[in-house]
Specification:
It contains no helices and 18 strands. The chain is an all-beta fold. It comes from Bradyrhizobium centrolobii.
Length: about 190
């Protein structure tokens, strides 16, 4: 097990693919040997972003996306013939980057967390940890993000405190046990497909 505490000052900021806003890149991975780290070389990305006005989502062919509101409420994603309901915070929705999505804000601006992965390169999961209790983590990369105040977790018997806005990046070579001790955390899990 390898752990790295990522603090907000470690994060980078980049424009949305469509230029409509700015996201905070918390952690990502790109293809080995790629000449540049861009959308074409992206394997996965864990990021947060404010959505302050209704508008279109970026077109991201070949990318699978998970999203969760962590601040505010009332977000609805509209796609042709479909609706993704994120009105309540900490609800995860899954969609593909090819969908033509327009946001609807029913109660003002929100902040969301996104976990994106290149289809076929990685499997991803995104969930909110709001109650104590053990859960198994598979081998892979896991990101424990303190989205709404500090939190603490226990990982294979070792305690970790994560300050507000920080992320504990955990690299696991084998199955491990995670427990939320206090606070609320967002857990993003990535397994690279060989």
């Amino acid at each position: 097990m390898k752990t790295t505490l990522l603090k907000p000052e470690d994060y980078t900021r980049s424009p949305w693919k469509n230029g409509g806003g700015i996201f905070t890149d918390i952690a990502d991975a790109h293809r080995a040997g790629a000449p540049t780290k861009d959308w074409n070389s992206l394997l996965w990305r864990f990021a947060s972003t404010p959505i302050v006005t209704p508008g279109p989502f970026s077109y991201m062919p070949g990318i699978d996306r998970l999203q969760m509101v962590v601040r505010g409420r009332g977000l609805v994603l509209k796609a042709p013939g479909r609706e993704f309901d994120e009105r309540d915070p900490f609800t995860t929705v899954r969609f593909t980057g090819e969908l033509e999505i327009v946001t609807e804000l029913e109660a003002g601006p929100v902040e969301v967390v996104n976990l994106m992965a290149r289809r076929g390169a990685a499997e991803i999961e995104l969930l909110a940890l709001m109650e104590s209790g053990d859960r198994q983590l598979a081998a892979g990369t896991h990101l424990v993000y303190a989205a709404c105040g500090g939190c603490s977790i226990r990982l294979d018997g070792e305690d970790f405190a994560i300050t507000d806005g920080s992320t504990l990046r955990v690299e696991l070579a084998e199955v491990s046990k995670l427990a939320l001790v206090s606070g609320l955390a967002v857990l993003g899990s990535i397994q690279i497909v060989s």
